[in-house]
Design a protein that fits this description.
2 copies of one chain form a homodimer. Chain A is of the alpha+beta class. Helices cover about 20% and strands about 40% of the residues of chain A. The first copy, chain A, has 3 helices and 12 strands. Chain A has helices at about 85-95, 150-155, 165-175, and strands at about 5-15, 20-25, 35-40, 45-50, 55-65, 70, 75, 100, 105-110, 120-125, 130, 140-150. In chain A, the strands form 4 sheets. A 4-stranded mixed beta sheet of chain A has the order 7-4-10-9. In chain A, strands 1-2-3 form a 3-stranded antiparallel beta sheet, with no helix packed on it. Chain A has a 3-stranded antiparallel beta sheet with strand order 6-5-12. In chain A, a hairpin with a 5-residue loop joins strand 2 and strand 3 (about 35-40). In chain A, helix 2 (about 150-155) packs across helix 3. The longest helix of chain A has 14 residues, at about 165-175. The termini of chain A are far apart. The model of chain A has no long low-confidence stretch (mean pLDDT about 95). The interface between A and B is large, with 72 and 72 residues.
């Protein structure tokens, strides 16, 4: 039997640009009170974008929280009031210079529901067009790289791809679109 | 060309039980300064545990940050100084009452590297033994459920499983162990 947790109080510790932090006091099913530390996030999108060579487009960037350069699918945070599909189009353009001509939602998930409210929506596109200019976020520095699906799977297995949304995107691309992504 | 971000200062906003929050000032490659909001997390594990009926063991629990009841693989946070494999054994026992007789590390990933340092290690076990008692965390209330691999895949596709580590676990179980998990 699952019970919800009744909220007694909410206290904001921090309101930031990317996250807010609050600590809620809740009542448990045994009537004990406890605290829950909650990182509020407005949500994000990721895009599995396939080019005309049937390669996946990835971005390489330094991630300060983990102090490593990671290889990830293009992704970004929802702006206020923005629909996930609009965000996917904007982020793909900003990060790679490609505009998607189709976008299919393939999965939605919580990245770390034990402490964070972040929900991530993944999209798939296999029709992209290079636009004349990229409108990169001035605080983002990244490289665009392209790899085949089988190479992506090998990099996942050997620990060279370590980002959750990218792993989910590659595994779903293999499962749902693998037959379309074989290269001659 | 990727550049790392040089840290100018670190300021702790909050130190909690599950997360710490700090804001770093960094220098970008263009010499501009910017702030990075960083949620520190000690890391976690998840366990894909297969019972004698070739079913996956899942736990259902209320998750306050997303205000929903989620279906997830057994999982938990590393205690101070704890090795991931020890944590996997402890969490499986606490949450389900089963002790793993084997544990194989299958993948490591960052759950949300844009703002969080959390690294999650996934383990696989197909030999479990019911122990006489569960030693559940007094602040955790959960139900144990078991489902076949194909049902898990259907629940993922229909949006009934929405937790990132659980999605990765199910997709990797299908890819690496699918042939062993077919039921007669």
């Amino acid at each position: 039997m699952i019970y919800c947790e009744k909220t007694v109080s909410k206290a904001y510790i921090y309101k930031g640009k990317v996250v807010n932090l609050r600590v809620d006091e809740v009542v448990l099913p045994n009537n004990k009170h406890t605290k829950r530390e909650i990182v509020e996030h407005t949500g994000a999108v990721g895009i599995i974008a396939i080019n005309e060579k049937k390669e996946i487009i990835l971005v390489k960037q330094y991630r300060k929280p983990v102090e490593e350069i990671l290889l990830e699918i293009p992704a970004g945070k929802l702006e206020k009031g923005e629909e996930p599909i609009e965000c996917a189009k904007r982020e793909l353009e900003e990060e790679t210079g490609f505009t998607p001509l189709n976008l299919k939602k393939i999965v939605e998930f919580y990245t770390s529901p034990g402490f964070s409210s972040e929900k991530l929506t993944l999209f798939y596109t296999d029709r992209i067009k290079r636009t004349t200019q990229t409108k990169s976020d001035p605080d983002e520095f990244l490289d665009v790289v392209t790899i085949g699906l089988n190479q992506a799977l090998k990099m996942l297995e050997s620990g060279k791809i370590t980002d959750a949304k990218t792993i989910i995107g590659i595994l779903i691309a293999k499962k749902q679109y693998g037959h379309l992504l074989e290269r001659g």
